[in-house]
User: Fold these one by one.
Assistant:
Number 1:
Amino acid sequence: MLNLLLKNGTVYVDGKLIKADVLIKDGIVADIKQEICENNAPSVDVDKLHIIPGLADVHVHLREPGFSYKETIHSGTKSAAKGGFTLVCSMPNLNPVPDTVQNLKIEQDIIDTDAVIKVMPYAAITKGEKGKELVDIEAMADKCFAFSDDGKGVQSEEMMLLAMKKAKEKGKAIVAHCEDESLLNGGYIHDGEYARIHGHKGISSASEYKQVERDVALAERTGVQYHVCHISTKETAEIVRKAKAKGLKVSCETGPHYLAFCDMDLHEHGRFKMNPPIRSASDRDALIEGIKDGTIEVIATDHAPHSDEEKSKGLEKSNMGVVGLETSFAAVNTYMVKPGHISFEKLVEIMSINPRKIFGIEAGIKIGDRADFIVVDREKEWIVNPEEFVSQGKFTPFEGLKLYGDVLFTVCDGEIVYNKLI
């Protein structure tokens, strides 16, 4: 277990940044104060660096079991550790789908063996994620993080209502990929200016927000905890804002790429293709406002690795999905903190504290707890080169761009899991 004294750092404690030393003894946070004198632990000067709680991502595709040519639990969690994450939640579009206790155990056994950080798996809402038959929520409730059919929207209102009722009984959240398939019309990028100029088929904003609207009404009826995945439209943000104003247990996330780009930034390349798509400048601006006013409480990457072959077929034919674990911290720092949209403290809240608190997980750096933190250089400039990624997935819209902010050191559960500090 780790023994280390970090000297002269800027530390995030209880929502504030303070200048302090941090002492780790046997993997436990032993002390945090302005001056710590300790002769036994190795000492590292981290002046000009920040010590913040490990990041948490509630929306990650680790691809195993079933699709290990895209990513494995080992490679995905190593990528997460490099990106500063100490907790990720793995989505259920796997083979076999974790829709039974037995199938969930297959995934959990690999996690127990191969993960280098904490991984909490989702269970599916419907069997095979096909939307036809509800899984046994009661049997799986204590073995999963939450229930989601991510990758697909639950098309049946009756099915979603039943799922919400069952999840509410077991105290579990429904986490929804919202997509009304009847409104897709064969689209594969945002139905906006870029699509019209370049002759592409567009995905309407209504395909997302109409299903969110439906689900929020069901959440109000049932009282279930309801979380919307990767929101991309201004209408969705407003629906969630109104739900929160009513006091409903409704939350949502967005991804760094929706805050950094609009559809006019697209290129004719698969690294700009994801679902939901990057939308208009007005949508992007509304999402930024949603972060600022607390409507959007969580940043999640929707890290979705694919093979070179799957992503090299242009906007129309490439698979949906981009990677994000190794760029997320820097992207949010660059596009949200640097321009003054949010404070650095707010970045910590939306990337570390809130994702845990919303789902009832302890958050923050506290004396007496197992060490779970990262050391970052907020000012470090670097150019995104996917060939340097630990992830097996190499496709990101941030490729070739200059970002600010680098993760130097990641400690999870009292152990070093990524290190270029010492």
Note: The chain has a mean pLDDT of 98.
Number 2:
Amino acid sequence: MHVDSVVFDWGGTLTRWHDIDFHAESVALAHAVVASDSAPEVHVDHLQRANQVIWGRSRDHQQSSTVADLFAEAGLDHDPELLTHYREFWEPHTVTDVQVAPLFTLLRERGIKVGVLSNTIWPRAWHEDFFRRDGVLDLIDGDVYTSEIAWTKPSPRAFEAALEAVGASDPARCVYVGDRLYDDIWGAHNAGLRAIHIPHSLIPVEQHGHSVGEPDGVAHELAQIPEILDRL
């Protein structure tokens, strides 16, 4: 098999997995609420429930959402300029793994395109800022963030969008790398790609999907991926 492109998940794959305090996340989101007479703790409850709803839509229907959709689901108006607390809450969890830059460089030296496909409600600019901060933005040939399209993984359409972004036409010559056996591994196979699993994330039970994929390879470190590609 000659590999044309390798597309990567983001959280838990290109970044290390972190357990998230979702109540604290909703507290950070609540700072962006405007024009409301309700107490802040009420906002937090509404936002936490809304968060569960939109990620349930992703899991069950592969329907994408944005930060604005989350506030709309909570029935709250917000000012995007006031999302600084929310972004600061997530900042420590956005650090790119130190193995990413040498891996991306090696893949591109081999003539393999590098892509990113992330289930996210965040705008593209945030992701690009994080990649730019960590010195890897220029090593990415194409990236898709589901906040910009109608679908999320594991929909084949999300994977098709990622392959189009990197200029790949044959999914059988492409590999997806991710930490989730449903969204990433089962989803990639269902879209015709090979799949490599990064097995260190503790995926919450409520985020498990209806199927579990069997990966073509398992990488305990990102640096192992070139060797796995050689065996495919």
Note: Strands lie at 5-8, 33-34, 77-78, 113-118, 142-145, 174-178, 194-197, 217-218.
Number 3:
Amino acid sequence: MSLAPFVAKVARRLEAARLSYGHGTTCAWDEAAWLVLHALGLPLASDLGAAVTAPPRFSALKKAVTLMHARIATRTPLAYLLREAWLQGVSFYVDERCIVPRSLLAEVIADASIDPWLPADCRHALDLCCGGGSLAILAALAWPDMQIDAVDISADALEVARINVARHSLQARIHLLAGDGLAACGNACYGLIICNPPYVNDESMARLPPEYAAEPPLALAGGADGMDFIRPLIANAAQHLSEGGALLLEIGHEREHFEAAFPHLAPVWLDTSAGIGQVLLLPRDELLHAASE
């Protein structure tokens, strides 16, 4: 006996319910596998086709079915139901107080593709709009010599971040700050500012599927063109970057709006699993040059 037939049945039910994905999985099969493995207390890397030496307990299978029904009935992201999210193979606690970790910035942090853009003596980074703290934690894991400030306007999100920082024993290196954008940083300067801001434009917000509408709108909504938070960030980021520093920014599907709002900027577009056009890097010198025009 293997788990594959049971996972397939769950996947068919999820598929028939026409759910939306993107909170850690991209399709019904992956979602079903995650759900079943979690319910059975098995690692995500388990081989679903391998023979199960000890048949799953009825209570574990019942838990999986209950989770499946809850996912379909409520359209709640599975990560919220499980109180668990994974990003770059790292586990995070998550609940409805923050968005589910999924930022593409995690890829360019983990694969070291932005390392050549960092100052040689970079020892201080900022995760702006940190939410539940996943990017700050991944940055701390990627760069063991760095101190990380993590800022969010939401006290609820920072409580989740505090749970995750403690979970990964990074209290000595990640400092949580409450406040609105860069104003929370005082006069601090950083070699790198990481920001996954609210950037969803109003039209797109009005069309969000229930799974995305279940997340805090404060962390998603970016105004008419998605650039409400990004405009003051672009205007002021250079003041908080040290010589040779850079701003690493995610804008999702808003490249057209970004380029319309900032025609004088020449960002470096970084390649991710979503292609080129959703993650960009702006060196301090480019921000200063654009501001002088």
Note: Residues 97 and 175 are 19 Å apart (CA to CA).
Number 4:
Amino acid sequence: MSTYQYKPQGVCSSLFTVEVQDGIIKSLVVRGGCNGNLQGISHLVQGRTIESVISDLKGIRCGAKPTSCPDQIARCLEAILEKENG
């Protein structure tokens, strides 16, 4: 299992910690942000492939912001894919 940390940009969250095994998300812990919503997202992504979560979350916006915590999670997962495949 590999553990990655990612600092999101332009959102209230300050750090994502993701555990991945064989392309499957084992856990996602988010520091900062909207606690209840992010706990829900963390539980919903567990056991899913990185690619499927990126597909579902990429491009979501928060109000007038050009990004959101879900979008930043997708960007985090894209960075993990690059590290694992690169």
Note: The chain has a mean pLDDT of 96.
